[in-house]
Write a structure and sequence with these properties.
With 180 residues, the chain is mainly alpha-helical. Helices cover 80% and strands 0% of the residues.
């Protein structure tokens, strides 16, 4: 927790602005480019929201040898950098706004995006195992992938809702100050 406290204490408007720009550049430039590299294969196992084992095995077959190799490479290059980018944004947004409103929970809010990014890396690990295990049927791996993906998206959603909550609290605070 002391690391989170240090990050929280360093959060300021400049770092928030840098994180927003970096996040935006990834959203409009890098993500579409990476997506274009694999669009010929369809959805990857880490982006599927299907609860049928067959869909995962079909996707793995559809990727073929080269596609599975590319998929694994992207999990350990791009999908290492991207979570760092969005976590930086989450940390700066939470830290900056929570400090502005003098939030009682403060830096402890940052545990939510930490859980999200940990689940993202777990999902990448499991997806790699799944793709690398071709042609074996590894049902437990697929189920683990489904669970890690759902939990990751749950914690990313909670993080976004938390940022929205903090923004609303800050807006209410500013409106209250302007009325006085």
């Amino acid at each position: 927790m002391s690391v989170l406290r240090k990050i929280y204490n360093k959060a300021n408007w400049k770092l928030l602005l840098i994180s927003i720009v970096l996040f935006g550049l990834f959203m409009v430039g890098v993500l579409p480019y990476i997506s274009s590299l694999t669009e010929q294969y369809g959805s990857g196992p880490d982006t599927m929201f299907d609860f049928g084992l067959g869909s995962y095995y079909e996707a793995r077959i559809r990727y073929g040898i080269d596609g599975r190799r590319l998929y694994i490479i992207l999990r350990w290059t791009f999908d290492v950098v991207w979570p760092m980018v969005y976590t930086f944004f989450y940390f700066m947004a939470i830290g900056y706004i929570a400090k502005k409103i003098d939030d009682k929970v403060g830096y402890k809010w940052m545990i939510i995006p930490v859980i999200a990014v940990a689940l993202d890396f777990l999902e990448n690990t499991i997806a790699t195992i799944f793709m690398a295990s071709f042609p074996k049927d590894v049902d437990v791996v697929v189920y683990s992938l489904m669970v890690s993906s759902m939990l990751k998206w749950l914690f990313i959603s909670i993080t976004m809702l938390l940022i929205l909550y903090l923004i609303i609290r800050r807006a209410v605070q500013l409106i209250g100050k302007n009325r006085k």
